[in-house]
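hey so u asked for the seq, here:
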Amino acid sequence: MKYGPVLEDILLNKSRLIEESKRHNPIVKIEKLLETTNPPPEFKSIFHSDSVSLIAEIKRSSASAGKIFADLNLNEIVSTYVENGASAISILTEKTRFSGDINDLTEVSSITKLSNTPTLQKDFVIDEYQVVEGRANGASAILVIVSILSEQDFKKIIDTCKSVDITPLVEVFTEEELNLALSVDIEVIGINNRNLNNLETSLKVFENLGPKVPKEKFVIAESGLKEVQDVELMAEYGADAVLIGESILKSNDMPSLINQLSSVKKCK
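ran it, structure tokens below
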């Protein structure tokens, strides 16, 4: 499969880093940790609302925007997000382009447990090891990007999610990917408005695919959302939740923006 240069670089580095992690922290050790870890808050609980749920994201940098918030205080950011209406917290753990780390997930999930707020781990998941590691470090849900996986690997990762009781947020960008996602037993679909190969963003992606998702599934709109009008538009096309990070982190009035973004009513 051919990828754009940025995505190819991320995936090459990801493979290397996973092998390093397996050597330093074998999966047997992680599975033992998992046996003694209390279950995290239920991710799907965020959809039990009349409003479009806001999944507020934390990231120090991104492949498309570069440095965003290099010196962020995780405890301070999480508290601001939760206190002003975020239904869940998304944390980037990818290192090469997003400056993330698995320790960020550990810290954020320990903070969110105090308010029973679910945590989503966002990374480029290509190995079942990452799923078990994420669950052991407190993730309620984990991003699974269809476009970077073969059909066989995709189904293996979904099976692993079920085995360790972590919710897969299955991300799609095309109708073909959506059909593959719907061929397995999952409940949460993420539609990414950003093309990961060229990093171009258009809300038309969700406008096209959102109505094609069965009503019984939960649908999350991802990328390119900056203001309340964007959330309202996504709601019109079937969004149960939105995932927003960069515009919140760059806002001059973070509490006000979070409150506005989390107040849009569903159209379903």
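The chain has eleven helices and ten strands. Strands lie at 53-58, 61-62, 66-67, 88-92, 119-122, 141-145, 167-172, 188-192, 218-222, 241-244.
lmk if thats what u needed
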